[in-house]
Amino acid sequence: MKAHRIFTALVAAAALLVGAAILPAHAQTAPKRRPRIAVMDFDYGTVQTASSAMFGTNVDVGKGIVDLLVTGLVKDGSFSVIERQALDKIMAEQNFSNSNRADPTSAARLGKLLGVDAIIVGSITEFGNETKKTNLGGGGGNWHGIGLGGVGHSNSKANVAITARIVDVDTGEILGVADGKGQSSRSSTSMLGGGGNWSGFGGGHADFGSSDFQQTIIGEATKQAVDQLAVNLDADSSKVGVRTITVEGTVAAVEGSQIILNVGGKAGIKVGDQFDVVRVTKEIKDPTTGAVIRRLSTSVGVLKATDVDDLSAICAPVSGSDFKIGDKVKTVTQ
Fold it and tell me: Which domains does the chain have, with CATH numbers?
C-alpha cells in the first residue's frame, strides 16, 4: 500500500511538471518589475542659515544630497529610479515651488503625472556643527568657536541628519519613514578642510558626489548619513506596490504598418505595452431617453507599442489586420 501511494504521488508530480512545460508563454507568470520611484529635492530650510555660513553663499544642499542618494538607490537595485530630467520637466510644467518639496500631497500629484509607484520626499534636519542652533555670523566667521568656510580651528565636528518619507502617489499615504545620520570630527581643520581644497560649489549648487567633498569633515558626515538613509529606504521597498493602470485610447492614424494611437507616456504607456483593439459595430440606445446604454464591438487584433512620446504611441500589429481610424484600444500596464 505504501509503495502504491509513493507511485501515485510521483505520477501526479510528473503530470504537474509536464503541464507546466506545455503552458503557452503568455500564460506563464511574468517577472514582477521593481517599484518605480522619483526622489524630490529635499527641503533644507531649517539648515539654510548654517549651510550658507559654511559655504559663504546659499547652496541647494537638498539637491546635492538627493543626487548622492539617487546614486546609492540605483546601486542597490531595490527601486527603479526615474531620470532627473523627467522630474524637472514635470515640475516646470506644474510650476512646482521649492516650498512644496516636503509636502506629500503635492509630491503625490507629481508622482502620478510621472507614472511612478511612489515618490520620496525628505528634509535635512541637521547640517554642520552640533551647536547649529546657536546664532550664526556671516560666512567665514566663527560659529560658536568652530571654524567655518576656510577658517581653520581645532576640534571641528560635523553632524548631518536627514529624514525621508515614501509617499503613495494614488492615496498620498506615507508608506514608510526612514532617516540617516552621520558624524565626523577632525582636529586642526575647518568643516570644508581636508578635501584637497574642494570648491565644487557655486551658482546655488554643489557636487556632493565629488571625492574631494567626501574627504572633508562635512562631506564624511554627509556620506554616512546618505548611505544610512539609502539602506533604510531599501528596507522599506517591499511596502511599495507596483501600480497597475488601465489605459484606453483610439487609433488616430494608420500609416502602412504603423498604427498611431492618441495616448502616450502621460497616460502611462511604455514601449512594449500591448493593446487589445476592438471596433464598435452597433450602439444600443435607450428608446426613452435616446442615451447610449451599450456598445457592441468585435475584436480587430492586438498592437504593440514601438515608440512612445507624451501624447501618442506608434504601434505595430501583433495579430489581426485592417486597423482603422476610430478603433478603440485598451491595455493594462504597469
Answer: 36-239 (3.40.50.10610), 245-333 (2.40.10.410)
N-term to C-term CA, the chain? 51
Residue 308's DSSP bridge partners are: 313
Q: Model-level pTM?
A: 0.64
> How many Å apart are CA 103 and CA 118, to the nearest integer?
14
Task: Encode pLDDT of 76-90 as tens digits.
Answer: 888 989 888 888 888
3-state secondary structure of 334: coil
Q: Give 64-75 pLDDT, tens digit per residue.
A: 999 999 999 998
Q: How far apart are CA 226 and CA 65, in angstroms?
A: 7
How far apart are alpha carbons 9 and 147 in whole angstroms?
77
- Give the number of other Cβ atoms within 10 Å of residue 263's Cβ: 22
CA dihedral (5, 11, 13, 19) positive or negative: negative
In the block, residue with C-alpha cell 558626489: 209
